[in-house]
């Protein structure tokens, strides 16, 4: 079984992002005046970075649970498609399988889908566990730091967008799939111009429909 010493360097890029990002979430939560104990609980039982950032403002504004549930569906709908491409890493255990499905975030997916990084389900499960641990630790650290920071700090919520940008650049550098990048840019442009209210869901659905309709590549025949 893969040891934690092998997982730590593998998940180091995510750790460098999740510790400060989780801390920013903890700071924003305390700064919004919400009950402190819900922040670590949300990082444990919800564990959805972009949604947690969104939930801070919605809960602070008194938004109802139904509206929050709808927003959760729209923000995290893309995760339905993540699991399809990671099926080969799905653990077989009664507890491991549902936790693996639960713990796939954007950053974890980026790590697990990178070629040559993770090739077995045990390692994949540990990667998921380590990454959530970084997020929870970051949340707790942010809650502590928030006590000594001035209220109303601006720009902290941009940290998650910055991490997504870095991950996208790294994927492009590794894969150099310019067709996929162009397809993503076109889908983002179309959704941003005509369906901006449901940008993420619309862009994801367009990409899925295009990929489903795309003819599979034919293996090259060997020549004598």
Summarize the structure.
It contains 12 helices and no strands. The chain is mainly α. It is globular and about 55 Å long.
Structural description of this entry:
- Helices cover 70% and strands 0% of the residues.
- With 224 residues, the chain is an all-alpha fold.
- Helix 2 runs parallel beside helix 9 (121-146).
- The protein is globular, with a radius of gyration of 19 Å.
- The model is unreliable at 219-224 (pLDDT under 50).
Distance between the termini: 43 Å
Report the C-alpha radius of gyration, rounded: 19 Å
Q: What is the count of helical runs?
A: 12
Low-confidence stretches: 219-224
Mean pLDDT: 80
Largest sheet: none
Number of strands: 0
Q: What keywords describe this structure?
A:
224 residues, globular, disordered C terminus
List the helices and strands and how they pair.
Blueprint: H1 4-10, H2 12-31, H3 38-45, H4 49-60, H5 65-76, H6 79-85, H7 96-102, H8 106-113, H9 121-146, H10 159-175, H11 178-194, H12 199-213
């Amino acid at each position: 079984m893969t040891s934690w010493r092998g997982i730590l360097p593998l998940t180091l890029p995510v750790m460098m992002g999740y510790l400060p990002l989780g801390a920013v979430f903890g700071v924003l939560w305390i700064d919004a005046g919400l009950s402190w104990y819900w922040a670590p609980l949300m990082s444990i039982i919800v564990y959805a970075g972009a949604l947690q950032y969104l939930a801070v403002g919605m809960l602070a504004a008194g938004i109802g649970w139904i509206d929050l549930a709808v927003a959760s569906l729209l923000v995290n709908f893309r995760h339905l498609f993540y699991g399809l491409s990671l099926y080969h890493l799905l653990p077989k255990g009664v507890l491991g399988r549902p936790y693996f499905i639960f713990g796939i975030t954007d950053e974890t997916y980026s790590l697990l889908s990178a070629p040559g990084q993770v090739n077995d389900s045990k390692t994949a499960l540990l990667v998921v566990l380590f990454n959530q641990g970084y997020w929870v630790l970051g949340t707790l650290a942010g809650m502590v730091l928030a006590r000594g920071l001035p209220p109303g700090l601006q720009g902290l919520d941009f940290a998650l967008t910055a991490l997504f940008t870095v991950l996208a650049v790294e994927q492009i550098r590794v894969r150099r799939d310019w067709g996929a990048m162009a397809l993503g840019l076109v889908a983002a442009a179309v959704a941003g111009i005509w369906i901006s209210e449901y940008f993420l869901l619309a862009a994801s659905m367009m990409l899925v429909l295009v990929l489903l309709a795309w003819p599979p590549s034919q293996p090259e025949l060997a020549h004598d």
